[in-house]
Amino acid sequence: MKSLPRITLLCAALLAVAACSSNRVDPKDYSGFLKDYSRLQEAKSPSGDPVMRWIDPKVNINQYSKVFVEPSQFYPKPQPTAVISQQTLQEITRYFNEALRREMASVMPLAKGPGPGVIVVRPAITAVSTSNEGLRPYEVIPIALIAAGVNTAMGGRDQDVDVGVEAAFLDGSSQKVLAQVVRKGAGQELENDTQKLTLNDVKPVLDGWAKDMRASFLAAKQKGR
Length: 225
Prior knowledge:
Strands 1, 2, 3, 4, 5, 6 and 7 form a seven-stranded mixed sheet that branches. This protein is 32% helix and 24% strand. Helix 2 packs parallel to helix 4. Strand 1 and strand 2 form a beta hairpin. It is built from four helices and seven strands, in the order αββββαβαββα.
């Protein structure tokens, strides 16, 4: 049996690495929602996903007794497409609001607005996009590349769903920034470039982010004791 050409094996390895790092945040993905990205550093979320994060080393979260979750927003404002409707975009922000409030309410009481003793969570969804699925390692074989190209041309290729979020955490009195985070996630793949994106396709990502935020708050409370 002949061994695969070295270039084929190299391409397969590179593609495998790319697939594993799809949730890694690239600075070119920064939206401008956060005022200062220079302090962000690579870190891991409680669930193990890569994030870019900064936390004021002097902050003690236990000095706050309530949390106010601002309504999430899209930044920049997205334009609906044939695949991602305005209704779906609205459903996504509405659900993210509910998920954040649900998870944060299990850590500390929810406030009705900013003020003394309140930590403010200011989230923004910075990307909801679909794109042709990256080639799998086995598709490096020339004949498979041709087949993949034909499938893409006919609109039949699976579509990756990428979602991005940025969030700032502020003192409810001074509006001083206490922490920032930027992260990406992958929704459920769509079967082709005509399938409509629905809220259910990104719910797991939104739920995961909200749960990670809760876990981060709990860890910070433990550390501050």
